[in-house]
Design a protein that fits this description.
It contains 2 helices and no strands. By secondary structure, the chain is mainly α.
């Protein structure tokens, strides 16, 4: 039996930044994989 779409997204684990490992506070299904701190550091260099 297929699970409901909302149930699928609710059960996803928290997303973590690929650079520092900090938990990202955003929707799990978005495509970003870096936290705002690491994104800011990339633009400052």
């Amino acid at each position: 039996m297929l699970m409901k779409v909302l149930e699928f997204f609710r059960n996803l684990p928290p997303k973590k930044c690929t650079h520092c490992g900090k938990e990202i506070d955003e929707q799990h299904e978005c495509y970003g994989n870096a936290c705002s701190d690491c994104l800011g550091a990339a633009y400052r260099q």
